[in-house]
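Summary for the steering committee. The consortium agreed at its last meeting that each partner would contribute one worked example illustrating the joint modelling workflow. Our contribution is presented below. We chose a case with several input lines so that the handling of multiple components could be demonstrated. No manual editing was applied between input and output; the record is shown as generated.
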Amino acid sequence: MTKREIDQISGVETTGHEWDGIKELNNPMPRWWVLCFYVTIVWALGYTIAYPAWPMISSATTGLLGFSSRGELKNAMAEADAAKQGFADAIAAKSVTEIIADDKLREFATAAGAAAFKVNCIQCHGSGAEGSPGFPNLNDDDWLWGGSADAIHQTIAHGIRYAGDADTRVSEMPAFGEILEKEQIRDVAAYVHSLTGTPSDAAAATAGKQVFADNCAVCHGDDAKGNREVGAPNLADAIWLYGSSEADIARQVRTPRHGVMPAWSARLGETTVKELAVYVHSLGGGE
Amino acid sequence: MERADVERLEAEPVNSAKSRQPLYAPRKKIFPKRASGSFRRFKWLVMAVTLGIYYLTPWLRWDRGPYAPDQAVLLDMANRRFYFFPIEIWPQEFFFVAGMLVMAGIGLFLITSTVGRAWCGYTCPQTVWVDLFLVVERAIEGDRNARIKLDSAPWSFAKLWKRVTKHLIWLLIAVATGGAWIFYFADAPTLLKELFTLQAAPIAYITVAILTATTYTFGGLMREQVCTYMCPWPRIQAAMLDENSLTVTYNDWRGEPRSRHAKKAAAAGETVGDCVDCNACVAVCPMGIDIRDGQQLECITCALCIDACDSVMDKIGKERGLISYATLNDYQSNMALATDNGTHAIDPAKVRTPAGKLSDRVAHFHIRKLFRPRTLAYFGVWSLIGIGLLYALFSRDRLELSVLHDRNPQFVTLSDGSIRNGYTVKLLNMIPEPRTVVLRLEGLKGATMTVTGIDEHAPESAEVELEPDRLKTLKVFVALPRNALATEAMSFRFVIEDRGSSETAHSDAKFQIPGRR
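What follows is the complete predicted structure of the assembly.
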């Protein structure tokens, strides 16, 4: 123990602490402060009884109130689900067209579809649904299998060329590399290119017209505008899934590539698929 | 005049140097005596006006038609609207409220630099409610002496009865105070009914409970301690005073040396001032201080000591104003007069003519002193903000439009080769009436617009129905044929027009096109 020191001016004992010649007086704590301090101790003890606090060997005390943050989350999620239940029921009961006709339902389904799209679809179609070579842009007005709300719904629900679904959309373009001569393929590529652009060789394009009529028109149509029944793309527009140059077209004629899209109704449930269809339909190309 | 007319009161200032205590000492009880006089009357008036405004405002009605509440002043938190008579403020217009607060701040500077801590003394809620609580206390327990007696008396049924009654009435006032507050946030008649039928929201009861507790504790139990220990305002306001600001001042240049036996002392040839040391100023002080100790932190300048002293001066036939509103400049010049520039102790005879009247050389406050560079600057800034706010209020738009270009994708190529851009368009109808506006494109020749949710419309314009007092969000697609494209992003604007009122709003936008390489 150090010697007790009494401050001469105030007559109060000092704590012995000194800063730059200033000594701290050992005044008692204000009564209200001391009371508050004791209250906090009592509160803390009560808190550890009411809430999970004391560590045990393999777990901790659970607290009298039974609080857990996991439980809070569960409740919050259940509350959110309950709040959405009315919309979810209505969406389950109605067709996609009916949902779109209802302002409030459409708004809800679009938002829900956008969320589901960002989890399940952007890996192929892109975060803005803008697509990439081989994966269709869903914003535009060019649809392989139809752009009506019901057609989009059908595509999402059952997929395209998806082995796991009996109702999946199926079509396959023959590999014309084994059927046509090299010149014929060059000619038909020049012809198809000439429908929307300027062909490198006008004579080849003219010759290709006959090749097209003999081999391609059955699916793509006489006017090359495609056929949605069989997923045959429109060749007379500005949108190309596998590239628009003559070489791109020729390669697709020789050895066609075929995209595969999974069926989603089994994975996501019918409600989410409807919401996705409403969202995709709202992107600007919906018919 | 007989000096016996003036009773000397037993009163000791709570903060006098000889009884100065550490901060944690128990509070010294204060029993303010009832004052009467012009300042007291003014304070009654201020109390009536401020309490009247506070309690009655939520009950005023203001017809805004069927689509908006009819309460004159309403802070509608749920819908994020603030209604003030004909004015409706949206959250983005909160700068009006901020501007009003800045004006209130500068107004306080202005008031403080001219008449000192007038806010503290007259209009601060703490002062007004303490005054109200004191009215109750006096009505039940009597004036100062009766209250001191009651306080020191042993507990009896009569004492218990008085105390219980007093605290019950205080609590009732406190409940009414807390209750009035919540009426600003909801329709008052509806909420009143809900409050009594226990159907109001829990937050309403919690708010009432908290404000009841604070009103009762601050107004009834803590009183002057709130001002002295808790409030930062006195410190800030004190910094805004200068030597030309009016403050409640004890004019010791005419009061000292004080004497309880003035006539006897004067007869004995001693110098005597006007102060008869009756302690009336201490007894009436709600802060329990002695203004004769000079300017002090605790003084809220309520001027009740002026009333008390003036009535004593009337009794002994001296001029009023021994305690008065005075500026430091005037006080010092008078002090110099009384002490011959500090060369000797105060001689009150120096400020008087041989006939005993106050000398012409005594400085008095003149209205001219209100107009100083400092006060004019405060007033100028205050008025400029006020004019700015008024201009903003009368020129503000009630129809607004904002446009957000889609970021991903920025543009879409359509099958015919044309380019389409998507926009999120928000239309704000900021009046409580439904209306129809025309949305159109300006400066984008050949463009075709498609508005989601509106089936039939012209290629370059669309009629949009707006709900009253609501925001409407539209998804708008704009397509431009290939031959109409420029070589870089094209500027245009969305315009909306209310054909009824011919209000318009516009928002500039860009039309993004594929890069040409």
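The interface with chain A takes residues 22-24, 406-409, 412-417, 420, 422, 450, 452-453, 475, 477 of chain B (CB under 8 Å). The longest helix of chain B spans residues 157-182.
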